[in-house]
Amino acid sequence: MTQETSGGDPGPLAGIRILEVGTMLAGPYATMLLADLGAEVTKIEPAGGEISRGVGPSYFASLNRNKLSLCLDLNSDAGQHRLGELVAESHALLVNLKSSAIRRLGLTYEQLRRFNERIVCVAITGFGLHGGDDPAFDYVVQASTGIAALTGDPEGPPTLPGYSSADNSTGMCAALGLLAKIISGSGGQVDVSLRDVMLSQLNYHASAYLNNGVEPQRRHNGAHSYYVPAQLFPTADGHLALFITHDGFWKSFAAEAGIGGFETMTERVARRDEVLGVVTAVLATDTAAGWERRLRPLGVPAAAVRTLPEALDAAPEAVVMAGDFRLVGSPIQISGYLPDYRPPPRLCPSPNRDR
């Protein structure tokens, strides 16, 4: 089942014009979030198209719906002239390329302010606009910032999640920075790096190390550092995520599970192994789905581990139509506004805008 959408409300970002020189994921995802909210996003592509077109139609659609397309050779005088014209009538330009390429192509505020003093220029790079050109693909950044070292079984090798968390997170931060600068009313440069975003997402781990010298460690079943029990547990059928963050949750869970004692978080943390042993034994008496049905009405945070197809089947309202593509819609729900999802733009053979 998919959600059919219809136009009408132009959206909260109607009238905001954004240029994108983006490739693959982080940049295109950032501008797609803004386009979903009504911004007019023009994707500037080389003659052969942005490289993610070659990955496949559904991949490209998942990151580029609701946009316009314009083919420009930014290495040419004509392309640079047209870029200046576009900048003069736009609110922002977002680019994700190597930092040297951003400067070489004249895609910084210092190079574009002559066309528009109020233009907001957002640069997404691996290590900052002045941080060099070392390769900074998503998985590389996860490895270099400590994410991979924290993920996986303690006795096993480090591992990576099955999706591009660094690119997606950086795209969201870039969209936030872009809007913040537009709201400020003045033009300028916004610099967002994958490295900095992922370090910031290690917030409490980083704080514990910086202030108390506590190094984060991998724990079995993805156990939380501070809360017990808060991790995955095997059950009679499937795995259950249980996340007990305060004593009220524990009281409700323990009553349903028939567990006595361990009434405070301080005690549960101090007796972690004992608590986990008791909880593991109890959860093995029912299935993951059974525990979810029992605990949800009590307000206890618990969920059976599902596959992506199962999760999509359980949330049909999250799926929308954009032309012929079934996609996950915008995660930002705004009262009174329903996006009119349009398919990704066709590749323009000439320097004209095209839907």
Note down, in words, how this protein is organized:
By secondary structure, the protein is an alpha/beta fold. The chain has two domains: 17-202, Rossmann fold; 220-305, 2-Layer Sandwich (formyl-coa transferase, domain 3), CATH 3.30.1540. Helix content is 38%, strand content 15%. The protein is built from 15 helices and eleven strands. The strands form three sheets. It has a six-stranded parallel β-sheet. A three-stranded antiparallel β-sheet has the order 7-8-9, covered by helices on one side. A two-stranded antiparallel ribbon has the order 10-11. Helix 2 links the parallel strand 2 (40-45) and strand 3. It is elongated and about 75 Å long. The model is unreliable at 1-6 (pLDDT under 50).
Quick structural summary:
By secondary structure, the chain is of the alpha/beta class. It has helices spanning 26-36, 57-64, 77-88, 99-104, 109-112, 138-144, 147-150, 165-184, 194-201, 203-212, 247-257, 265-270, 272-283, 288-295, 308-314, and strands at residues 17-21, 40-45, 67-71, 92-96, 120-125, 188-193, 230-234, 239-243, 302-304, 319-322, 325-328.
What would the keywords be for this entry?
CoA-transferase activity, six-stranded parallel β-sheet, CoA-Trfase_III_dom_1_sf, alpha/beta, 355 residues, 2 domains, 11 strands, CoA-Trfase_III_dom3_sf, Rossmann fold, 38% helix
